[in-house]
Task: inverse folding
DNA sequence: GAGTGGTCTAGACCACAAG
DNA sequence: TTGTGGTCTAGACCACTCA
């Protein structure tokens, strides 16, 4: 029987995932929805919601009339692009030890293009945070964050940016709901190459993204460059 | 294979999306789930499923206690990486006229790495298809497809590859269910630069992906290079 | 307090796979 | 034919927003 702390669906999802990791379903076949519902004492709808979420994660797949099965390939995925929320977690998922270095924190006035993207007037002040993420002490991600100072209600120090940026926003009353991200190829130039310890002229993948809050208002612009020799950017593409 | 009728949920989703595009919800606020259910003569559950799919697409967003609203930013997204299924559609979504050119079709024996990725023995024969996708007659995507010949049951000609590759697989009794994709930065070299009409040394984004069928068996390997000055690769990243 | 979306139930019927 | 997942219903209660 389950208790009502997290939603029943989330508990059921976690429970089933644990059963999978514990190798309870030896032949790769997961118990039927009806059985799972009876086992956990919840309705079949709740079980179906839980299984749907595991299916989206790629952990299982379903075949109508046949059953629900473990997806071994999906279980191997270390980190999925559309689910990354903190780069520390991403580095950790690749089995490196993550660490973070704040390169600089300062306030600049918004250039025209950034102001437009963030729905601001040109010249409005922006907090600019440059962060370097390291995997086993090797620099692997360089990130620039631009936050309108108008959103910042709390005083802060550099140390506040050692944590993921969504925590800083949260402390200022803004919940980061989602990013709209664009993938942009990049050539490493002198400074970038030096910071990331790669030779100049190497191609890199970068993200250019805008983060929105629950009210769909842009609250942050962020760009990040990745060393793909350390980190693999993966995603699942499904038939719509 | 087409279904006789679309599910009520899909119909409801299409109906609501049309209402949005028709500007029926002038203030950006969508009618309540109860109202929509009554209007369409279906249960609230069906409406909720339809709205959930629109929310995943980024078309709307919901706020508990407040209502459901149109997401203008989401409506602007031309094509999302995790939903692309044919490159023709992707080019079309960017308002270019798509066309396709078959560069070559031949059979080669699988090198060790490819064989491992496709669960084959080394040296097993692979059908290799090189395709070029054009936007307004400009080359924008170069794609390599590798298909184990063991899967091919029908005879074929070059013309069969003018259509998306999943249609060729379907004709051979294989349904392409999903791709596991990796994003890899690339430097344009001589031949690639010439084919895509870009200068050598330019950084590009490429996909390296493996396609699986419903039984989770790898059936195709595919790599594609994109001219990002024509095509923007976008995705939505949400808090897990 | 009224109305909204979020969760959950118990049950029904259908489409499909496999023995 | 049996059992599976896929769809859908009608109704309940809760958490939350907003006037």
Result:
């Amino acid at each position: 029987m389950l208790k009502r702390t997290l939603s029943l669906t989330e508990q059921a999802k976690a429970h089933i995932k644990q059963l999978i990791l514990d190798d309870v379903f030896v032949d790769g076949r997961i118990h039927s929805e009806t059985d799972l519902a009876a086992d956990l004492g919840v309705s079949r709808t709740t079980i179906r919601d839980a299984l749907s979420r595991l299916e989206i994660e790629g952990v299982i797949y379903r075949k109508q009339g046949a059953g629900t099965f473990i997806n071994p390939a999906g279980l191997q995925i270390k980190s999925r692009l559309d689910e990354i929320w903190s780069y520390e977690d991403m580095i950790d998922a690749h089995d490196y030890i993550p660490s973070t270095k704040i390169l600089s924190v300062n306030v600049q006035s918004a250039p025209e293009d950034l102001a437009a993207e963030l729905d601001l007037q040109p010249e409005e002040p922006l907090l600019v945070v440059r962060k370097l993420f390291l995997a086993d002490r090797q620099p692997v991600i360089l990130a620039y964050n631009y936050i309108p100072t108008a959103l910042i209600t709390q005083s802060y120090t550099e140390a506040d940016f050692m944590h993921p940026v969504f925590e800083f926003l949260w402390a200022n009353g803004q919940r980061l709901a989602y990013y709209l991200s664009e993938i942009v190829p990049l050539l490493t130039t002198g400074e970038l190459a030096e910071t990331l310890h790669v030779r100049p002229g190497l191609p890199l993948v970068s993200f250019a993204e805008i983060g929105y809050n629950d009210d769909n208002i842009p609250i942050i612009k962020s760009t990040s460059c990745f060393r793909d020799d350390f980190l693999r950017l993966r995603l699942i593409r499904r038939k719509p």
Q: What stands out?
A: Chain A has eight helices and ten strands.
